[in-house]
Amino acid sequence: MLVKQALYTWLLCAAVAFTGLGGVLAEEKPCTTHADGNYYDLSRLSSKTDYEFKSPGGKEYVLNVCKAVSEEVWAPKVDRPEDVAGFTHRARGDFSLGDVNTTVFVRDGNPVITMTDGTRCSDNGEQTGSTVIRFICDGSAGRGGPKLIATLPPDEDNACSFFLEWRTEMACPTSEGSVFGRIISVLAIIAAVLFALYLIIGTYYNRYVLGLHGLDQIPRFSFFSFGDTVEFFRNCVERVKEWSSDAWHTRSSFGGRSWSSSGGSWASSGRRGYNGLGATPDEAQTMLGGPPGFLDEDDEDEEAPLPSGGESGRPSGMNADGVIRL
């Protein structure tokens, strides 16, 4: 029964997580949109410093894009003063041009943002201030700036609707950004979901199956520390060195006996030649003396008696001239 409850909980969490993940991937990022195969990103116009401009009549306006204005607004008479995205000064207080809006739509190839829910246009009416900003792609304008085109009614002191035009290179189609970054974001979300599921299921199991309570019911984690990782790689390097050394000694040996152990060696500098076999003085004397008994046989040949008849070895009765006397 407890296993079934844990399984149902896991399935429910997985369904909620992947539903939310699909929604994140499907939604547009704030102040961006796709249209006719093009991608538009107006979030680059968002600035820490508000944009200030004047109308042809000399009236001052303050505006920001995709964020609320940084300048303090005086008595705008709105429900959320912190969301005011633009305003103009009037005698009874600042008049809000509308709240922040991050939804962009494209009309005739130009991205457009509308702002609504500004200050009430009259004390008795329900209409509130609103603004439409049309952004025009102009590669030579840089960031550019807003320009007031028209108001309704035309009298700016009583105007309730405003129409602005903004020439900027930021309104031109651009690339959507790195796909790799989006993949990393998705993987991070999946990892967070799996981690949460592991905590939930592990806690269920430890509490209701193993009967653990308190901190003991929380699953434990074990990861390689940085020191353990360094030690692991150091041991791997040492083992590779040992294997390499053993293989070299095996190749340099012949019949179980290596040149280094037998005393013979080749000169390491300049390859000057073979230095010979090392031996003790007794061993050298034995090799020079020949095999056992060699010197004894020579002595026997030297000590053999001469034939009878003199040291010269002539037959008996023969003189020096070779005449035999009878």
Which features does this protein show?
transmembrane; elongated; Cation-dependent Mannose-6-phosphate Receptor, Chain A; five-stranded mixed sheet; single chain; four-stranded antiparallel sheet; 326 residues; 6 helices; 32% helix; disulfide bond; alpha+beta
CATH topology of the domain at 38-171: Cation-dependent Mannose-6-phosphate Receptor, Chain A
User: What order do the strands of the largest sheet run in, or round the barrel if closed?
Assistant: 7-8-9-11-10
Task: Report the sheet-strand fraction.
Answer: 15-25%
Q: Any idea what the CATH superfamily of the domain at 38-171 is called?
A: Mannose-6-phosphate receptor binding domain
Structural category is alpha+beta
Helix content: 25-40%
- Report the end-to-end length measured between terminal Cα atoms: 145 Å
**Number of helical segments with 4 or more residues:** 6
Major β-sheet annotation? 5 strands, mixed
Gyration radius (Cα, Å) is 52 Å
- Return the string of H and E elements: HEEEEEEEEEEEHHEEHHH
Number of strands: 13
Shape: elongated
Kindly report the average pLDDT value.
76
Going by CATH, the architecture of the domain at 38-171 would be: Distorted Sandwich
Poorly predicted regions: 21-26, 254-277
Using the coordinates above, name the CATH class of the domain at 38-171. Mainly Beta
